[in-house]
Amino acid sequence: MKKRSIIIDTDPGIDDAIALAAALFSEELDIRLISTVAGNVSLEKTTNNALKLLTFWGKRIPVAMGADRPLLASPSDAAHVHGASGMDGYDFPIPDRSNLLAEHAVNAISKTLKESAEKITLVPIGPLTNIALLLRMYPDAREKIAEIVLMGGSLTRGNKGVMSEFNIACDPEAARILFESGLPIVMAPLDVGWKALVRPEDAAKIKAMGRTGEMIYALLQHYRSGDINTGFEMYDSCAIAYLLRPEMFEVAETFVAVETAGILTAGTTLVDLKGYLKQAPNVKVCVDINEKMFRDWLLAALKRCG
Ligand code: BDR
Ligand code: CA
Question: Contact at 8 Å (CB) between 173 and 72?
């Protein structure tokens, strides 16, 4: 089977860690690079967390450290959701730093694209700073980008601001650069993440899966997006689920704008499903998810991790 080549841009983050587990052990994906960005916690911590996960699984995948702050917005984080380390709750082995490249993530992404025989799909599951810098610094990179499948934005309400989702609200200008780029974009917004749940009975199954299951279960005890009674929200895994099982999503091709000027609404995605703005579609937006298919897929994906 021909694997799909991807680059994951991430800010681990507990749900990022679970998304990475699902991607790293998939036989359908070839992860060419993991790039890190400041988001859920500082760049140093997100990079350390990516390295911790690779060491835990004994995987050799290059990691490149990217932007340590947004383009214009003031830095912020989500340590209240993921813990001070970004992945609180598990005592990871000391990370093997030999996976870490010396070059900046934006250069590493550009180089990986340039040297690739085929196009690569970018999968950003954190703020979009690295991707925006890539498009500005290496405009030719776009020729090698197959698609951008991201977790971010919202159809309705926010989780960072009243209307704005964390990944977009952390760096609204970067998101705007991407959404105005004309590249093929798929967006898995908060709204599908709210339905992409690990429920109590699933958490028990995960715990019994072995080493990875125990690690994920321990992290979930410290994850503050949802809870053990109502279910934990698996936002970032939605991007991986779309890559592997797009049929579990209902998708609408529509125009999406990013608000950057609003005093109270900066970082809001305006998903113009009714065509008020009279603009051509620029994004495939996941508007709904088959919850059962997602849960079955995620549990099977995590079981493969050993
Ligand atoms: C997004 O914000 C982060 O806290 C999560 O990792 C996810 O990428 C959800 O809004
Ligand atoms: Ca994330």
Answer: yes
Which ligand does the CA of 192 lie closest to?
1
Radius of gyration in angstroms for the set of CA atoms belonging to the chain, rounded to a whole number:
18
Question: Which residue's C-alpha comes closest to atom 10 of ligand 1?
Answer: 166
CA 278 to centroid of ligand 2, rounded, Å = 31
Q: From the alpha carbon of 82, which atom of ligand 1 is closest?
A: 4
CA distances from 13 to 24, 80, 131 (A): 16, 11, 19
Q: How confident is the model at residue 228 (pLDDT cuts 50, 70, 90)?
A: confident
**Which residues does 92 contact at the CB level (< 8 Å), separation at least 6?**
52, 53, 55, 56
Please choose, from the candidates 104, 124, 126, 128, the residue with its C-alpha nearest in 3D space to the C-alpha of residue 177: 128
Given this model, what pLDDT does residue 57 score?
97
